[in-house]
Design brief:
42 helices; about 850 residues; DUF1963 domain-containing protein; single chain; two-stranded antiparallel ribbon; eleven-stranded antiparallel sheet; alpha+beta; about 45% helix; DUF1963
């Protein structure tokens, strides 16, 4: 066993501000938990003297105490901490963290390399992909330790640590792999579920870090190319600190596979002058994948002379790379049309003057923004971000555009328009994803004056979005805005007609935009006058359109024609077009995710109609929430009966008026009239609660009675508190909806649908804001708990035997915090009005 003096001697002079004795003591403090595993001495010996690397193999077996070294801020049982203190008196977690900072502040690079290897082994990890994975662990721990405290040593650590030091450490350990610079940048940018890079970013964002990136831009491009999207996005943003040094890298990121990365790269390129941007983007016009070109084309269209570069690419049809492919040529020609025709035109329709905000404080804020040039500093950018968050208060968004233009920004038009797909509302939804006609009223004058931007959004897609966010259907968004125009913009009429004659969901708003435009009816007639062997889908669309316009003799096709014959169940085909809209969008997105069209269509065959709460509170009144409880005198309140004289009554939740439910609104055999009263005990005790409903036929005398319930209501202070909350709720209004399976599937359905996981994921992203209530349809999945309808079946032999496929969801309520209630029933019982056999289930994640 080495003595303290021998450890000190092994350190040599060291570097930095710390002395050798202090460093040796600090290393002992950091590694003290290894005394529990009796490998403390060889680990300290390896770190201080570089001998005994065999200890790394012992650490990878994760003996007791190693986790406290690898993850010092993680949870550890108190008895383990006590064991460390017994073996190393006076040891504390806080003291060990302070000792870490002492090491990181002053240790020489060879010692730091060996400490990194020990920390990495204590995670149970070996070499990964030939890279210095221990260097990643070390850099991550330095960032964690130095950003988790305001201690003076932490500031000194942050000042010392930069990419140059990390590279020195890599070289000290004879870095394998492509180069020490590659290992350094990989370590500082690496991200996984345990190592987020934010704590390491200060090493790249310092002046030394910026200079390092500029010297190693080729290596940075290699590292970024194999990284996750958020790393590429960060690199694109960081290159803005020295854009000239990173032109080639940012040019590649400008046509990245991820839309967010493309947007960030173009923002970085905007720091260069116009001619430089044009030269940088020109090379992509003939080589970049067409689906990644629109952003670059939009930027070129905004630059003086950019359209000339696009026209040159169109004219250069006999270049060495061969002629332009049709998709690329179409995109380029459309970009030229936007600049030469749409941008140069006067306002598409008469627009009112800019409406100033009535709120005096907001008006003053806009005036102050005129003196804050975006991009000139953190305070200026923060002020603009605050202003963006107040969009909903502006009667006319052009007021914000005018302020940005007055501040000297040359991106005012596009920046303001893109707020629709980049900003979220108070509910975390993108503004453009849920744009209402009332909201569109504040946006239409901007697009009437900038028709080229409207035309860009008609291309479709999901806008500039983070992959974890909901998509924005930009075509739907801009059609909603175009509907607010006082007249149809003539330059867009041909394109709108092409949408109106299509088979997807966009045909309906496009027709509303066109209204009674003279070209509209003529276009539909022309399609029907063509030979009958033409495109059947277009003919059906034309017939549907003419029937809508009241054309004499026009016969609309069968409902649901746009999905193809036999795709949708009969109960779904007759749903309103506004409801089928969601299935059309689902089909489009599922195909974009690579699911074969045939598999998507077979999945659509599982669709079921439902009634759901409308996000805007529309629809007829279908029910009343909470008391009073009205039941026939001879019908007992549903309850669990323990003894003849002891009944635990269920609580009234909602009274449904079946006469208000349209006959085909669900595929359930509901009575045509009367009332269904639904009960539940909102608690976590019972998994299945039998008999949670009463059917009251129309004309049956009822009496008001007290609902005597005794239980602890989950999420509420008491059952009375829950009832008060229900009574304060508005009347239950429901509108037509549609549902697809979202719960885990049975084996038979899974085998028949090999892409079920992807299809369910795509459907979960459809943000129709359906609200809390649903009648009929498929059950909403809650934390993968399973299908409540199938779970209700009693498959034991006997009187109550039933098959899982015979059970259906009568109603579901997402009305308790982190929980959901289901009322399920056997379809045969529903047909014979045996509502006393309804089963209530509640799932929650408290």
């Amino acid at each position: 066993m080495y003595t303290f003096d021998e450890e000190v001697a092994g350190l040599g002079d060291g570097t930095g501000t710390g002395g050798a004795p202090e460093l040796a003591a600090a290393v002992r403090e950091v590694l003290a938990p290894l005394k529990v595993a009796q490998i403390f001495d060889p680990a300290v010996d390896h770190v201080l003297r570089g001998t005994g690397p065999g200890v790394l193999g012992l650490l990878r077996e994760l003996p007791r105490g190693t986790k406290m070294v690898a993850e010092p801020d993680g949870y550890q049982p108190a008895e383990l901490t006590d064991a460390v203190v017994d073996l190393h008196p006076g040891w504390t977690r806080r003291g060990a963290e302070a000792a870490r900072l002492t090491v990181y502040k002053g240790a020489p690079v060879d010692l730091l390399a060996r400490l990194g290897q020990v920390l990495h082994a204590a995670w149970g990890r070996g070499a990964e992909d030939g890279e210095l994975s221990w260097l990643r662990t070390l850099a991550h721990d330095v960032g964690r330790a130095s950003t988790a405290t305001d201690a003076a040593d932490a500031a000194d650590v942050r000042l010392r640590w930069n990419p140059d030091l990390v590279e020195e450490i890599a070289r000290a350990a004879d870095a394998p792999g492509r180069s020490a610079a590659h290992a350094t940048l990989s370590a500082l940018l690496y991200v996984d579920h345990q190592h987020w890079a934010r704590s390491r970013h200060h090493m790249l964002e310092s002046d030394a870090g910026i200079a390092y990136l500029a010297r190693h831009t080729d290596t940075l491009a290699e590292v970024a190319a194999g990284s996750e999207f958020h790393v590429r996005n960060y690199v694109a943003a960081q290159c803005a600190r020295s854009p000239e040094a990173h032109v080639s890298l940012v040019a590649e990121l400008a046509v990245d596979a991820d839309a967010g990365v493309r947007a960030q790269a173009l923002a970085t390129l905007s720091r260069l002058d116009g001619p430089r941007q044009i030269d940088t983007l020109r090379e992509h016009l003939r080589t970049a994948p067409p689906d990644r070109l629109p952003d670059a084309l939009a930027r070129l269209g905004d630059l003086d002379g950019g359209v000339v570069a696009i026209e040159e690419a169109l004219a250069d049809g006999d270049s060495d790379t061969g002629p332009l492919d049709p998709d690329r040529e179409r995109l380029l020609r459309r970009a030229v049309f936007r600049v030469r025709v749409l941008r140069s035109a006067e306002a598409a329709v008469p627009v009112p003057p800019v409406a100033a905000p009535q709120d005096a404080a907001l008006a003053e804020e806009l005036r102050a923004l005129r003196g804050l040039r975006p991009g000139s500093g953190k305070d200026e950018d923060r002020a603009w971000q605050v202003a963006e968050s107040k969009l909903a208060l502006l009667p006319d968004v052009r007021a914000l555009l005018d302020a940005r233009r007055a501040a000297g920004a040359d991106d005012a038009d596009r920046w303001t328009a893109e707020l629709l797909v980049t900003r979220v509302d108070g509910w975390g939804r993108k503004i453009g994803a849920t744009l209402t006609p009332e909201g569109a009223e504040r946006w239409w004058p901007l697009f009437a004056e900038r028709l080229h931007l409207a035309d860009e959004y008609l291309d479709g897609g999901d806008g500039k979005r983070h992959p974890d966010h909901y998509a924005v259907d930009t075509r739907t968004m801009i059609l909603t805005i175009l509907e607010r125009f006082p007249a149809t913009p003539e330059a867009l009429v041909p394109r709108l007609i092409s949408f109106a004659l299509g088979a997807d969901r966009h045909r309906l708003p496009a027709r509303r935009v066109l209204g009674d435009h003279p070209a509209a009816r003529a276009a539909a007639r022309a399609v029907l006058s063509e030979p009958s062997d033409g495109d059947a889908s277009t003919r059906s669309s034309a017939a549907e359109w003419l029937a809508e316009l009241g054309e004499p003799g026009a016969v609309a096709p069968e409902p649901g024609w746009e999905f193809g014959e036999g795709v949708l169940p009969a109960s779904v085909r007759n749903l309103p077009a506004s409801t089928l809209w969601w299935l059309d969008r689902f089909r489009e997105q599922a195909r974009e995710r690579g699911v074969p069209a045939g598999d998507v269509d077979r999945w659509l065959g599982l669709a079921r109609p439902a009634l759901r709460t409308a996000p805007d509170g529309g629809g007829p009144v279908v029910g009343r929430l909470g008391s009073p409880l009205l039941l026939p005198p001879d019908v007992p309140t549903p309850a669990t009966v323990f003894e003849p004289d002891y009944r635990n009554e269920y609580q009234l939740i909602v009274t449904l008026d079946l006469a208000a439910v349209p006959p085909d609104a669900t595929d359930l055999p509901l009575p045509p009239d009367g009332h269904v009263v639904l009960f539940a005990n909102v608690e976590l005790e019972d998994e299945l609660l039998p008999g949670g409903a009463v059917y009251v036929p129309v004309g049956t005398p009822v009496e008001e009675r007290e609902n005597s319930v005794e239980y602890e209501a989950y999420g509420y202070d008491s059952p009375e508190d829950l009832d008060e909350s229900l009574r304060r709720s508005p009347d239950l209004r429901l509108v037509p909806g549609v549902s697809l399976p979202s719960c885990p599937l049975d084996d038979e359905t899974s085998a028949a649908h090999p892409h079920a996981d992807t299809l369910q994921e795509v459907w979960s992203e459809q943000s129709d804001e359906g609200g809390e209530w649903q009648l009929g349809g498929h059950a909403y999945d809650f934390d993968g708990m399973g299908d409540p309808a199938r779970e209700s079946a009693d498959q034991e032999p006997g009187e109550n035997f039933s098959r899982p496929e015979d059970w259906v969801v009568l109603a579901q309520w997402v009305g308790v915090p982190m929980g959901i209630l289901y009322w399920t029933i056997n379809r045969r019982d529903l047909e014979v009005r045996r509502f006393d056999r309804v089963v209530v289930q509640m799932y929650a994640n408290p």
